[in-house]
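Structure in, sequence out. Go:
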């Protein structure tokens, strides 16, 4: 894991004056952790935004405070409603031997390589993050899963397919390994789901439509069998 470093300086403005701090190109922050009180800090907006993009809330970073490195993670990020500009960050210092619980992204790789996609099927990801725990040095930036082996609409990828790196565990000891991360769908099911959802269909919408289609087909078959049986009884009575 590449080291992510951010230099913090003691905050020069507090309270309502923080607005002036932001206008001058700095982001106010607070550093929690340890035995002392939280400390108010600040850092340049451009450098801070790069660190936030690289680390998110799951990758440890090194804060340089008064010439001393402190390992930390980002606990909270406040963005402006308009423009999503950084307004405030809360850091929490950690120890190299601490067990950190955090969410990491699930990244699907091998797009376009599967037999399912070549056959015109669509693969949709239902879960994008999962909670894990590990020491800071073992925390992965993401968990990768290949979709290259998917072939039919019956195939899927579940949590059980994740190969956790050494020293990493699921945060939930009772993690449901059957939880579906990605499904394969017929385009017709997605189209029907999009029409039903007004163009904003999610993976579960498509699954619901697909299930309804199967159920309707089963009911139609059952009705046909029933009609056939009734007609047969009538002919027998004649």
């Amino acid at each position: 894991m590449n080291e992510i470093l951010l230099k913090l300086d003691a905050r020069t403005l507090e309270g309502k004056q923080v607005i002036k701090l932001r206008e001058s190109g700095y982001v106010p922050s607070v550093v929690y952790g340890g035995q002392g009180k939280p400390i108010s800090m600040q850092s340049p907006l451009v450098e801070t935004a790069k660190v936030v993009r690289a680390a998110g809330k799951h990758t440890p970073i090194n804060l340089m405070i008064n010439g001393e490195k402190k390992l930390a993670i980002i606990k909270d990020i406040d963005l402006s409603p308009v423009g999503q500009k950084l307004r405030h960050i809360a850091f929490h210092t950690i120890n190299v031997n601490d067990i950190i619980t955090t969410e990491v992204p699930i990244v699907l790789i091998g797009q376009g390589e599967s037999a399912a996609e070549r056959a015109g099927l669509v693969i949709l990801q239902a879960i994008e993050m999962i909670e894990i725990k590990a020491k800071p040095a073992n925390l992965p930036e993401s968990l990768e899963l290949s979709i290259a082996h998917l072939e039919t609409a019956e195939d899927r990828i579940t949590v059980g397919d994740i190969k956790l790196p050494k020293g990493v565990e699921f945060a939930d000891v009772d993690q449901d390994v059957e939880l579906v991360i990605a499904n394969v769908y017929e385009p017709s099911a997605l189209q029907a789901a999009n029409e039903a959802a007004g163009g904003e269909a999610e993976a579960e919408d498509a699954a619901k439509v697909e299930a309804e289609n199967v159920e309707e087909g089963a009911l139609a078959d059952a009705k046909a069998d029933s009609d056939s049986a009734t007609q047969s009884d009538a002919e027998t009575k004649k």
